[in-house]
From TrEMBL:
GO cellular component: ATP-binding cassette (ABC) transporter complex, substrate-binding subunit-containing
Positions spanned in the full protein: 1 to 226 of 354
GO biological process terms, semicolon-separated: carbohydrate transport; glycerol-3-phosphate transmembrane transport; glycerophosphodiester transmembrane transport
Key words of the record: ATP-binding, Cell inner membrane, Cell membrane, Membrane, Nucleotide-binding, Sugar transport, Translocase, Transport
Organism: Halomonas urumqiensis
Highest taxon of source: Bacteria
Record GO terms (molecular function): ABC-type transporter activity; ATP binding; ATP hydrolysis activity
ABC transporter domain ranges (all copies): 4-226
Protein name: sn-glycerol-3-phosphate ABC transporter ATP-binding protein UgpC
Length: 226
């Protein structure tokens, strides 16, 4: 597990679009922090900077003890869960989970252990030989989470992972993510525009507005204010 620390993080896109205007945030070891706020407030940009998918214009980003500003995504010891699943369509579920580990040179028994563990936690053991197109939306999203789990990262980043699912599945997956969080206690940064998701999952919520932090607090503190 790792602490994620943002000091004065800024992002200016070409055309002088100031998407993130100076964010200080300290996510503790094992803490689950949810970023909320209106569309266009900079949530996704902030998360993508932490992931290494977007360059940082200004400021310092620590993951664990390291400054990771210029490290590649794969070197940051994080795993990201996307809303569009990002599965390999031609591979079985097992190989979707195993592929990255194989690339990274893990031994066969270690791959089997990690895939087995993740599949067990996400209850997708029965689908390991299927292709993604033979799965429901919820099952696909579980596989996408499995791809993050098998990496056994120091931190998880979630970019609206449930927003493509129907309402019933969203509720179910919300509960499942909460259970995983209780079990794994991995440091997490989670972006959503869904208030119920934020309230259910977040130890702490960070409300962004126009590229800046507007409020920080527990779900109770944020949503019980007049
Ligand atoms: P959110 O995730 O909260 O909806 P984003 O981080 O996607 O917000 O966007 C923040 C601001 O940055 C918006 O004004 C958006 O239009 C702008 N923006 C996002 N991505 C780019 C980009 N690649 N180039 C230029 N502007 C961008
Ligand atoms: P994976 O490792 O997910 O099976 P690849 O081996 O094709 O897929 O990885 C492509 C690149 O993207 C690698 O640098 C990998 O470390 C990175 N990457 C893949 N999945 C994630 C993820 N969920 N979060 C962060 N980085 C990822």
């Amino acid at each position: 597990m790792a602490r994620i620390k943002l000091d004065g993080l800024k992002k200016t896109y070409p055309g002088n679009v100031q998407a993130v205007k100076g964010i200080d945030l300290d996510v503790a070891d094992g803490e689950f922090v949810v970023l909320v706020g209106p569309s266009g407030c900079g949530k996704s940009t902030l998360l993508r900077m932490v992931a290494g998918l977007e360059t940082i214009s200004e400021g310092t980003l620590h993951i664990g003890e390291r400054v990771v500003n210029t490290l590649e995504p794969a070197e940051r010891d994080i795993a990201m869960v996307f809303q569009n699943y990002a599965l390999y369509p031609h591979m079985t579920v097992y190989n979707n989970l195993a592929y990255g580990l194989k690339n990274r040179g893990f031994k066969a028994d270690e791959i089997e252990r990690r895939v087995g563990e993740a599949a067990g936690m996400l209850e997708i053991e029965a689908f390991l030989t299927r292709k993604p197109r033979q799965l429901s939306g919820g099952q696909r999203q579980r596989v996408a989470m499995g791809r993050a789990l098998v990496r056994e990262p120091a931190a998880f980043l979630f970019d609206e992972p449930l927003s493509n699912l129907d309402a019933k599945l969203r509720v179910q997956m919300r509960v499942e993510i909460k259970q995983l969080q209780r079990r794994l206690k991995t440091t997490s940064l989670y972006v959503t525009h869904d208030q119920l998701e934020a309230m259910t999952l977040g130890d702490r919520l960070v409300v962004l507005n126009d590229g800046l932090i507007e409020q920080v607090g527990t779900p109770m503190e944020i949503y019980s204010r007049p």
